[in-house]
Amino acid sequence: MNIPLELPSIDAGSAPAVPAICWPDKFRVYNVLVSATNYQELTEAIISCAKRKRSAIVSCHAVHAIVTASEDSDLCKQVNHFEAVTPDGQPVRWALKWLHGKRLNERVYGPELMLRVCGAAADNAIPIYLYGGTESVLRDLIAQLQHRFPSLRIFGESPPFRPLTPEEDEQAMERIRSSGAGCVFIGLGYPKQDIFAAAHREKIQAVQLCVGAAFDFHAGNKRMAPAWLQRVGLEWLFRLCQEPRRLWRRYATTNFKFIFAMIRQFFRSPTSRTTILNRDS
Fold first, then answer.
1. CA nearest 214: which of 103, 117, 98?
2. Residue 279: is its pLDDT beyond 90?
3. For the whole prediction, is pTM greater than 0.70?
């Protein structure tokens, strides 16, 4: 489903100077380089990049994503070239503290990051594009975002639940490019969304944000865990109770693997378990 909206005209001569893009430092958690960041720092980097029409990828990783990427060498290589990978789950934030001494006040949760970036995009007249979800979810999501951010320019489409043909893929890329979007939110589920973002980095001159279940949450299709459960790292339990048949195997395996990997990594020497990357552009 495509939602065309008229783009505002912009006087290039009156555009303010755009500051340099400073992506946050990254530290190894299992095999994934995770950004030690916060909402404000990352939102500023995303908006700065969007203003410049630069290609970049930001993905939000909870435990399941960290374990899945860590055990797939090709996927891990792609993810570790993203500009930012956020500590989406509390256990990932705690791992940054235990392994690297990074005392973050809060995680950087995909649904919350999406709202903050949308607010900043509205303030800066940056159009956004929504790629993913069913047609009904996408329609409800657009309605919710337009209600919350009336000035936000929104485009979107619900791709088919199958691989695209080369022709369909190029048509989708052309729709994204012609929209003028500076931020492209991808809600295809993990790891499909990260694979999609990596494959289209050179074709999308915008910031791709892989935000997982944010589409369903903000559309009202799924309930978000209560704040207190999120704070104590038990959001997974809330989601498991909602979808036991789909999620029990995921959590039974990935949670155990993550705990074991963190214990093993903790007892390595600091030099062998720390990797820091910082990229200014």
1. 117
2. no
3. yes
